[in-house]
């Protein structure tokens, strides 16, 4: 009974956080939900969308609401790893070296247009994402907790960009694609931007966010649901074993075990966000496209047929059905 009360409190707190963010950010409900899922699941987001869709505003506002540190890095071709993680600076007066930490030492980090930076800089960021620490001159520095990286890609400009290798993209929990707002949403956006500035209230702390992350790990995931995640990911590697022989020549590389872990952790976070102590198939099904779309690499044959990873994922989801019946929460509690 205590667990359920705690979960309802967690859902209420997250509802307050979302309410404050939505006082500034108009629309983008699905994107906001994915940001919260990534934060609770301790993952990172790769966001693809044209400029002006409130990506920076969303993360900056969220940082204000949870009283966390926010940093934004504009990735450019001349960026070097030291600009990101920090470096050692020589003091002529004292004759000593001091460490100047880079902008990655924040709770919420926006890596804007990550594909504009060379591979060495991308690798430096992705190492921080994975290890949550930086080593400068043999000294290890840990990034603050919680730590969320939201990297953006611009889909309309390809000149002067460096595509992210699949092994690096795989480290992102989800890839979210943003679209333009509706006419009604755009009307409200113009009204808010041109009207008086909205001041958000800090309704949580980074400590409370850390407690929510710990609570997220205790959300129950039925073994049948884990098996469903395993089958989905397996179908991207060996589709013929799941009755999808026609897809075998269309996929070069399937998803890694990180995808299976991401589906389970994401389902936990979404369940907690929806006020439950246990995950349902609907929680996982909602996240499958976002968790898999950047991990399924199409073959030349698939690209020549005009297919997309989303189309293949839809076909896999149609063939691999979610479990019809899970262990009832009452039985699990007993």
Describe the structure.
It contains 14 helices and eleven strands. The chain is α/β, with parallel strands linked by helices and 334 residues long. It has two domains: 2-211, P-loop containing nucleotide triphosphate hydrolases (Rossmann fold); 219-325, Magnesium chelatase subunit I, C-Terminal domain (Helicase, Ruva Protein, domain 3). It has a five-stranded parallel β-sheet. Strand 3 and strand 4 (96-101) form a beta hairpin. The longest helix is centred in the first third of the chain and has 21 residues, at 2-22. It is globular and about 70 Å long.
Oligomer: single chain
What is the averaged pLDDT score? 86
**How many runs of DSSP E, i.e. beta strands?**
11
Helix content: 40-55%
Overall domain count = 2
Describe the strand arrangement of the main beta sheet, using strand numbers: 2-5-8-1-9
Tally of helical runs: 14
Q: CATH class of the largest domain, anyone?
A: Alpha Beta
Largest sheet: 5 strands, parallel
* CA-CA gap between termini: 12 Å
- Pick out the low-confidence regions: 1-5
User: What CATH architecture of the largest domain do you see?
Assistant: 3-Layer(aba) Sandwich
Family: Belongs to the MoxR family.
Protein name: ATPase
Organism: Hydrogenophaga crassostreae
Keywords: ATP-binding, Nucleotide-binding
């Amino acid at each position: 009974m205590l667990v359920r009360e705690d979960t309802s409190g967690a859902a209420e707190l997250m509802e307050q956080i979302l309410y404050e963010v939505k006082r500034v950010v108009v629309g983008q409900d699905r994107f906001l939900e994915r940001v919260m899922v990534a934060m609770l699941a301790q993952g990172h987001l790769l966001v693809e969308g044209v400029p002006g869709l409130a990506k920076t505003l969303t993360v900056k506002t969220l940082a204000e609401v949870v009283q966390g540190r926010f940093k934004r890095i504009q990735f450019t071709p001349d960026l070097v790893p030291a600009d990101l993680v920090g470096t050692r600076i020589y003091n002529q007066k004292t004759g000593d070296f001091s460490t100047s930490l880079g902008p990655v030492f924040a709770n919420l980090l926006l890596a804007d247009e990550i594909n504009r930076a060379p591979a060495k800089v991308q690798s430096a960021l992705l190492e921080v994402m994975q290890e949550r620490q930086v080593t400068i001159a043999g000294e290890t520095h840990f990034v603050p907790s919680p730590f969320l990286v939201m990297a953006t890609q611009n889909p309309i400009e390809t000149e002067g960009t460096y595509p992210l290798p699949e092994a690096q993209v795989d480290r992102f929990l989800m890839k979210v694609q943003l679209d333009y707002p509706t006419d009604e949403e755009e009307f409200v956006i113009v009204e808010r931007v041109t009207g008086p500035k909205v001041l958000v209230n800090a309704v949580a702390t980074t400590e409370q966010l850390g407690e929510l992350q710990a609570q997220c790990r205790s959300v129950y995931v039925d073994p049948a649901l884990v098996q469903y995640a395993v089958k989905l990911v397996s179908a991207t590697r060996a589709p013929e074993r799941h009755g999808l022989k026609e897809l075998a020549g269309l996929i070069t590389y399937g998803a890694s075990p990180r995808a299976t872990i991401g589906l389970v952790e994401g389902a936990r976070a979404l369940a907690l966000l929806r006020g439950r102590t246990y995950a349902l198939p609907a929680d996982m099904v909602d996240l499958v496209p976002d968790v898999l779309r950047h991990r399924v690499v199409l073959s030349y044959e698939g690209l020549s047929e005009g297919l997309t990873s989303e189309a293949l994922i839809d076909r896999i989801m149609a063939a691999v059905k979610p479990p019809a019946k899970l262990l009832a929460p009452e039985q699990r509690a007993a």
